[in-house]
Design goal:
The complex is a heterodimer. By secondary structure, chain A is an alpha/beta fold. Chain A folds into two domains: about 120 residues, Alpha-Beta Complex (Aspartate Aminotransferase, domain 1); about 260 residues, Aspartate Aminotransferase, domain 2, CATH 3.40.640. Chain A contains 15 helices and 17 strands. Chain A has a seven-stranded mixed β-sheet, with helices on both faces. Chain A is globular. The longest helix of chain A has 21 residues. The two termini of chain A are about 30 Å apart. Chain B has one domain: Sufe protein. Chain: A, CATH 3.90.1010.10. Chain B has four helices and three strands; from the N terminus they run αβββααα. Chain B has a three-stranded antiparallel β-sheet with strand order 1-2-3. In chain B, about 40% of the residues are buried. At the A-B interface, helix 13 and helix 15 of A face helix 2 of B.
Chain lengths: ~425, ~150
């Protein structure tokens, strides 16, 4: 068992104090929350930033001529700067959306219908979340593009020789892949994928919903054309997500939704569009949630990704060491570069029964196909149970999971 | 609710989940239908044979699912045999009500079915218990359509 040494500044007990919800008991047991990949818990800093906004300066943004609206607009737009710095983008390249799913839909609808022609191909991988598969199927059906699926290896990594095959005829215009699988925990080699796509005349969209939580993301270093993520997995609130797009691409894209905010001038006959990012932000945005996301980014920056990544490595190594020896337990995927998501099956016990019985012991995991049904089938499975970790997760919690699984094995033996 | 969820995983449920007595597919079934839960991928395929008088004479199931789902399908396949196809709707409704409320109906035929009353305390698992009964309703609907077509 290999155990990475966490950075000295990282004190998980101290961090846990920042998350009020973790003190709870569930079914009379101390809560062990191992479902952060579905949605992460919120630190007090995020909760307080949202409450403070509502209690002291809430008003609609960008349109008020009064003090409150100006203050709230400043707070809101300051988050755009924060997000831009967070992933090393320009502020006009940051579009606020509801979540990663909406961001992919925006690109599929707007970029897909303007920059792609019937007969062009879009490539996704076998390990995509439904959010990065279904919008492309919809684009295919509405717009006549071809959708191709690049295989993964049995270890759960992108099969580069197959990638070369699917690109071979020169029709591929967009590669849309995950940065980190929500089922297998695989990190994909995004710089290599981006340079591969660009060398073949294609753009790349990265689904960063999982990766952005665990690693510093630099969209310029990656040379990503589009990068999407959600706030709620990043210790922020629901209802706010981010689409990054290269300025030149966004500039050429038509709007996704029409309404207030996104216009230049409007007459009864026609309208002109605002410049990005506002062109893609029709209607009153999720103001309070955006400010919550800003607080979440501040919180993460205070801890620092060096410490977060080291902690996650320690948890992942520990989880693999605790789970692998359990008889009849099979871990999905064996990627070399994997993060804090471990999906598994237990012989003779359905994942739902695993989840219910763990819940009785106060342990929250997810069970099912994790919004990646084709991947689950590709793995030859019907469902898996999944433990996933956040900054507040501890090795002791993973030990509790191991003990819980042993109990379930006994019950079903 | 107990720590090992014994209210949910009653002995009969565990026995039938481990060793279902009616698993399989009838070669010449007269009514067949599937119940699917797209949220979790569970699937129950039910096949039934009926006699001229509309009495169910044989039943079997192929189930891909959790212990609750497999046991529910297995006990369903046992309990519907010897019953008029026309009365299965009422039985299914009584079962679903019990899963919702946890109250065992005062019916003699619930001796085995009452093993699922404990599911009521686990809202996310109700569907696991009721999926086979939805497949039964679908099978009965199909049978009716076939009869009308005759």
């Amino acid at each position: 068992m290999s155990v990475a040494v966490a950075a000295p500044s990282f004190d998980v007990e101290r961090i846990r104090e920042d998350f009020p919800i973790l003190n709870q008991h569930v079914h009379g047991k101390k809560l062990v929350f191992l479902d952060s990949a579905a949605s992460a818990q919120k630190p007090r800093a995020v909760i307080e930033a949202m409450v403070r906004t509502m209690e002291t300066r809430y008003a609609n943004v960008h349109r008020g001529l009064h003090w409150m609206s100006e203050q709230c607009s400043d707070d809101y737009e300051a988050v755009r700067d924060k997000v831009a710095r967070f992933i090393n983008a320009g502020r006009d390249e940051i579009i606020f959306v509801r979540n990663a799913t909406e961001a992919v839909n925006l690109v599929a609808h707007s970029y897909g219908r303007s920059a792609l022609q019937a007969g062009d191909a879009v490539v996704v991988s076998e390990m995509e979340h439904h959010a990065n598969l279904v919008p492309w199927q919809m684009l295919r059906d509405a717009h006549g593009i071809e959708l191709r699926v690049v295989r993964i290896t049995d270890a759960g990594e992108i099969d580069f020789s197959h990638l070369e095959q699917v690109f071979a005829d020169g029709k591929v215009r967009l590669l849309a892949v995950t940065h980190m699988s929500n089922v297998l925990g695989t990190y994909t080699p995004v710089e290599r994928l981006a340079s591969f796509a660009h060398a073949h005349g294609a753009r790349i969209l990265l689904d960063g919903a999982q990766a952005v939580v665990h690693r510093a993301v630099d969209v310029r270093a990656i040379d990503a054309d589009f990068y999407v993520f959600s706030g709620h997995k990043l210790y922020g609130p629901t209802g706010i997500g981010v689409l990054y797009g290269k300025a030149a691409l966004l500039e050429a894209m038509p709007p996704f939704l029409g309404g207030g905010e996104m216009i230049g001038t409007v007459t009864y006959q026609r309208s002109t569009w605002a410049k990005p990012p506002f062109r893609f932000e029709a209607g009153t945005p999720a103001i309070i949630e955006t400010i919550g996301l800003g607080a979440a980014i501040d919180y993460i920056n205070t801890i620092g990704f060096a410490a977060i990544a080291a902690h996650e490595r320690e948890l992942t190594d520990h989880a693999l060491a605790v789970l692998a020896p359990i008889p009849g337990l099979h871990i999905a995927g064996a990627a070399q570069d994997r993060g804090g998501v471990v999906s598994f099956t237990l012989d003779g016990v359905h994942a739902h029964d695993v989840a219910t019985l763990l819940d009785k012991q106060g342990i929250a995991v997810r069970a099912g196909h994790h919004c990646a049904e084709p991947l689950t089938r590709r793995l030859g499975l019907d469902s898996t149970a999944r433990a996933s970790f956040g900054v507040y997760s501890t090795c002791a919690e993973i030990d509790a999971l191991g003990v819980g699984l042993e109990r379930i094995r006994e019950l079903f033996s | 609710m107990s720590e090992d969820a014994s209210d949910l995983y009653q002995r009969l449920v565990m026995e039938r989940a481990r060793h279902p007595l009616h698993a399989g597919r009838l070669a010449a079934s007269q009514a067949e239908a599937e119940g699917n839960n797209p949220m979790c991928g569970d699937r129950v395929r039910l096949s039934l044979r009926c006699d001229e008088a509309g009495m169910i004479t044989e039943a079997a199931h192929e189930t891909r699912g959790c212990a609750i789902c497999v046991a529910s399908a297995d006990i369903l396949a046992e309990i519907v045999v010897g019953r008029a196809a026309s009365e299965t709707g009422q039985l299914a409704m009584a079962f679903e009500t019990m899963v919702q409320t946890g109250i065992v109906p005062a019916r003699e035929d619930f001796e085995m079915l009452q093993a699922f009353a404990g599911v009521s305390a686990y809202r996310s698992r109700h569907r696991c218990a009721t999926l086979p009964w939805q497949a039964l309703s679908a099978a009965m609907e199909k049978r009716k359509e076939l009869e009308h077509g005759r």
